Amino acid sequence: MNAPLKTDMAVGTQDAGTSRGIVTRTQLTLAAVALLALCWGFLPDFTVVMLCYIGLYAIVAAGLVMLTGVGGMTSFGQAAFVGTGAYATAWICTAPASVQALSGIVGMAGLPWVGLALGLVITFAVASGLGSVTLKLSGHYLPLCTIAWGLSLYYLFGNMQFLGGQTGISGVPPLVVAGFSLASPRAIGVLIWAVLLVSLWLLHNLLDSREGRAIRALKGGRVMAESMGVDTARYRIKLFVLAALLAALSGWLYAHLQRFVSPTPFNLNIGIEYLFMAVVGGAGHLWGAVLGATLITLLKEKLQDVLPSLLGTSGNFEVIVFGLLMVFVLQRFADGLWPTLQGMSDRWLRREAPRAVRQATALAQRTLPAPGTLLLQARHVTKRFGGLIANNNVSMEVKAGEVHALIGPNGAGKSTFFNMISGVDDATEGEVRLMDQPMLRSPSRAFARLGLARTFQHVRLLGQRSVVENVALGAHQRAQRGWIASMLRLDRAEEAALLAEARRQIERCGLGAHADAPAASLALGQQRIVEIARALAGQPAVLLLDEPAAGLRHLEKKALADLLRQLRAEGLGILVVEHDMEFVMNLADRITVLEFGTVIAEGTPAQVQNNQRVLDAYLGGSDDDLPAATGPATAAAAATTPQGATA
Amino acid sequence: MDLQIALLLGQDGIVNGAIYGLMALALVLVFSVTRVIFIPQGEFVAFGALTMAMMQGGRIPATLWLLVGMAAVVLVVEAVRFQRGSPVNWFATAVWCLVLPAFAAALVLGLRPTSLGMQAITTLLLITPMGPLLYRLAFRPLADATVLMLLIVSVALHGVLVGLGLLFFGAEGSRTPPFSEARFDLGGIPVSGQSLVVLGVTLALVMLLFLFFGRSMVGKALRATAINRVGARLMGIPTELSGDVSFALAALIGAISGLLIAPLTTVYYDTGFLIGLKGFVAAIVGGLASYPMALAGALIVGQLEAFASFWASAYKEVLVFTLIVPVLWWRSLSSRHVEDEE
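YS: structure for the whole thing
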């Protein structure tokens, strides 16, 4: 996370202005869909069956795209969720007990719908269970958990006699929609592709919203997302559940297409194959799911023809090719094949015209406390890492309408302290209060909710997203439209307000010209300013800035100082950690100096500048102050000074 | 169930637990040093066991051709890297790509070993170099990728190796003769010599690893890399070395486990996967970081499996794998703040 952000030029060519093409991407997509619809009746049977399977797999892969490419998680157990959906409807539609009990109420044609509901409910329960067990742990535990789940469910299906054991359940009835029986692949294929396209549309809308930005932020490191007020654990579970529900939906369609279910198509290998589809197609792009599903399905078909005769024995050998293909794609096209295609097509596609801005609603406004109000208070904060005392009895406060600077040599414990007053870490002893509320053991997002915003010493932006999107993430908690509203585009007015607010903050920070450029294409100093704009978008009362002036040129520093003065005049309380003494001394109202985790001085810039201990810490001090000591003690004192002098 | 059966099951659990413990050690080692969650660990077990079985059947193990093929590709890759100006450790490359495969080929094709001991050594020589070769081909180009990315590559490799296993060894399973035919009677409980061999070798390996990490320079370098990757690199420990050595150890441990388990149960080309995953459940008990906790986890997994096979044999695997859920839940209790991924 701390590595400098890479610039992805394929994404960064939005300003190229070469819009020679005749159609836009949306028009092209619609045309392709219309073409498919027109041809559907004339395609050969075999092609229709293949398209049905591609559609089914793409629904699952789309969920994995959301999970893997967008959210930075993954699952190897999607096949098990597909199985849950398939078995639920197969059991409801065929088991004598359920048919007897239910057919009287919903009729025979209604049974599949009960099956769908059951499959979704079970999937929801299992996915939220697995998600909540792993939510606090590092990201790799969830996929490991899904491997175990994928295997377990396969064995369960194979061993449960009421589900037909290894032979499975046959005689699943076809779907009947409004009197039409969807018995043939050509008929149910229409439903499959309708479900796929509607799902893609909903997911596309979700990604293009406040909630979508929060989901993308999951991948950019959870500490950053939490600081923006995003409950990362909740979002992770929701995303995992969403992907699982899509898989179950695909399973339901599968059962009514195949009219027969057995454990084999739901084992772990198939779960891994689904992931191949998402990754090969392009794990960050929804259409990558369709591309991946098409490629892998066609390739599998071919390989199952060719390989056994080539190798002289029969068996599941296509997995060798898939595996090698996967390793190759990940090493060479880490983003999958879709972005490559997209880059090639950019040349002859017209850019989308910007949408007309709708009437924006107002965002939640915070009334800032009166100047002089105590905003943030740390009392006797001590932090120990094992035997190492990083902060020792540190007290300081930030008031509304003042700039407080925290300075100290490298390794003085500034960052540790910063983490404790922003909820990233807990103090071992002592108390942190924000807006007069005890914040002991509160997560970062609780700090954010009370009006604390921060920047990071190592820039944490989503490099491939535009500056405006990054900044809009900062305003996350000033709006409330949820996932469903975003999917159905009911959030447009609010979204317009969020983006307008983001642009306002970008303008204010002087980056207006770069608002639509990918964040990673900016210079490091500018990226720091983007972080400040992002913090301001949350309309904070307290602003914590971790080395904001690092990497800025002289004029930029001056502009930053002016901005901070303006914010101070508006009544914000600002805490700055900074190494640039000129910047600090000209700006700060009060300064706290840390050395070796202890406060060695506090006061106005003038007081601090004349404090002997501060001078010692920064300028290497002189041995004159030390009590006259002989040989070894002097040597020891001399040995400690260079550490301070490196600041 | 009476005491006799309980003791028998317990003994079974300990023997299997020892194998899972070896898996868990290798997994923790590879993960902590290289951040790779090495799903194909179990494939080394199957490859080891089936290579041994093939040699005993008087055939030339197909793993030899795999080894030679991988070595050739790695040589090409290293040459290309050298051309492009990347530093190449030719000494290590020669060891993994030329010396060890040459030895193995000489043993397989020239000596055609007939004694159990020599066949075992040949097997180890065939399998061990595959670890570093796999690392160089699949993981080294992705050294800076996220844990998640490495995990996906790892799963893809698992697919490749299982497919190759089916191609090399066929769908039939094999069993090898035990290293010890002795039978003991311990207070009315029959104990097979092979079980004792498994336990003895496991304990010896654990001790050796302990000494390796505690005393040897390379072992200490690996530990340093596990604690702080960047720091270790700044101290002059090459990433390549740690990758090579940890994967070699993983492959060696896998092959030894294969030799140990083949006389106890029929090994199929895909048996290794389940064994490796059970090692994973154990390693997760230790948070993929603690060796002693991973070993303790392995014993729990072994016992759970043994007793589950008595009470609910059809659901044995389900019970073992769902153990991961309470374990993860227990681990998540101790971590309050969100962890940031690397």
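YS: worth flagging: The longest strand of chain B covers residues 183-186.
IM: good catch. Also Residues 3-170+191-329 of chain B form one domain.
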